[in-house]
Structures
1.
Amino acid sequence: MTKDLEHPLLQQPIDALSVSPEFKDMSKANGFNTLQEILDEPLHELPLKAKSGYRMLRELLDVLQANGLEDLAEDWENP
């Protein structure tokens, strides 16, 4: 499901964001350039992707929450 929102954070390159080096590595390994690209995928599958895990999902959720975008991830547990 595409969760599109006009928020500049979602379109910024992940390399430019204040996220961990591990999150940047995971994003690169899976071809994600922006947070929007991650949100375009089912979030319950993120921990199963290359160089990922539940810690990467937690970091994504924390970034969204810190920017008032937590509603974009409300259904991550319900595929």
Note: The mean pLDDT is 90.
2.
Amino acid sequence: MTFKIALNLILAQSSILRFWHLESIPPQTENTLLEGRLLSAATGVLMTLVVFYFSRMLRINRKPSLLAAWVYSIIPQAIEQGRIYSPIQLLTFLLFLSGIIITKYFLKKNNTKLYFTLATLVFSVIPLYWWIKYPPLLPVDSILNNLFILLSPDLLFYRNITFWWGGLREFGIMYLFFLPFIILGLLKAFPGKRFLLFILLWILVFSAFSPAFPESREIFLAVPLWSVLTGTGLFYSFQARNIYVKTVATGSTLFLLYEYSQLIHYYFRHYPLIISGNLDKIHGAF
């Protein structure tokens, strides 16, 4: 019963963050598709649930999986993409949902090699499409530069440049105080960790290959994976017996809640004003 209440509260929070004043925040342009915004918001809320089941698919326990779902619901880029018409939001939902369904109903055996092979094939499709549509591909130095940008603290925690004119560029893809929990999630051994890191690496690589980088936003596909790592680290940080670890975890959580409140204030008060001055620079459905 407690689990169901917690999950429903997380879904309620996710719904409020994505549907509240959706028709006016962000401001509409002449190309705005309100139906598209509603679809992105709906799939954004459902992705909160998908992240939970994806974490469970990796054989992670229920409590860290709940935390992973909560983390996804409040990540800045997930909120941003869940309130506009976002094809990458829809693609993320379809890919992860398909992965869960295929794993549960068609790959009942724990065949790790098959999982790795399928993930490699799926995440090779987009670079192949780019090679056909935009030959030749980016030079190696540009790809490496893109990769360094994607892994930079500036992009991850301070300034998201992947959707410059219409995005939350005053915030990173995620919060700075996720960092201690991500580190712990990377250090902690848990089921499915190797597979998760493999997919994360693939997403980083093919995002770096994008001819439209940084505006292509493929890096959003990694947000559910960062959520699982953060949720796992958050859970184990409070399970630790070491007083220093618990102190750092408590302090980071308090600062995280402060960052979250800053985001909410900025998004619903200042972000609409900034976007209003950039509407002529936002092309395509918004």
Note: The chain has a mean pLDDT of 88.
3.
Amino acid sequence: MHCRIPIVALGASLLGCQSVTVTPRSIREAAAPPEVRERVLATWREAIDLLNEFLASPFNLSLPRGRFELRDEEGMLFVTDGGARPIEVRCSTLGDLVRWAGGKAASLRRGFVVARIGSGKGDRAVENSLFTKPDGEAQPPRKVASLIAHETSHLVHGNGFWRNCGYLCEALFLWRCTTSSIEDRPRATSVEIGLFARSKGLSQDFEEALEPGEAEALLATYVLDPFLHVEHGPFPELASPRQGPPELERLHAHCALARAWFDPVLRRDGSPERLQDLAALRGAFETETLRCRLLCLESDPDGAKLEERRSRMAGILKEALDLVQTERLGKTLLGEREDPIPADHRSGAPAPENR
């Protein structure tokens, strides 16, 4: 999200603006060719299916377990144990201003706004930035699901309007834009669903899907790095019941992701020397995990020591990933590809999309 987006959103939200609520019914009644209406509805339904699969997957660390529902009159609902939350989508003048400012959407109190795409004469229910690219081509379901997940994360972790106000204050007084704390949890959601898509071979940014476990290892590396501007869960305030101290809950989730990669790699055939090195790194990772767990269990954990341990764990994972990359393990571990993870993505997850 660009610095001027919250300024635009805050100003425009105080003014009246024309808008269309995007629902399955409004799409079917839109002044657009039948094939366009059917394509938009099919894309939205497929995006909902992807979102629900993501929510139930180990990649989801930032949103509560639940499901999205698409209803004819109401549009989207996010249903969790705490109830059903409307995720209202509006295509409005405010959304047009957000797009002009460089963004894709902006969260408000009950949902988010998107922009009209095209000549400005099309029906907002179908020709909008949720379903259509700036060049007029159709958005793939993965992109639609990613945008919905990001904006839902804003709503789950705080009222959209007031979070925009907080974003504005940070931009004006602390000069924070891309590193705004308001974006930390939604940014984490974007990273998580991006790696989920890569694990299924749905990402357009890479030609092939990651091997089983690779995406989990990248995500575990990412969430353990204390210097990145993301905040992954699981978040105790969204979980019921609580299982322990917040830091310990997060540690369990992150370490489970790392083990999901380490274990199958160590069971496969490859260079004995490299496998021995990987086994040593696995042992070092478990040692740091134990030390970190003991710190979490203290009545008043030392934050600096905790971040130091987490940083070491992230470093061990990065070293293990690099070891597999450079050795290739005789193309046994990572398949027949020349370069399964591009060089500029080897030490972390792909950059999240801007709003």
Note: The chain is about 50% helix and 10% strand.
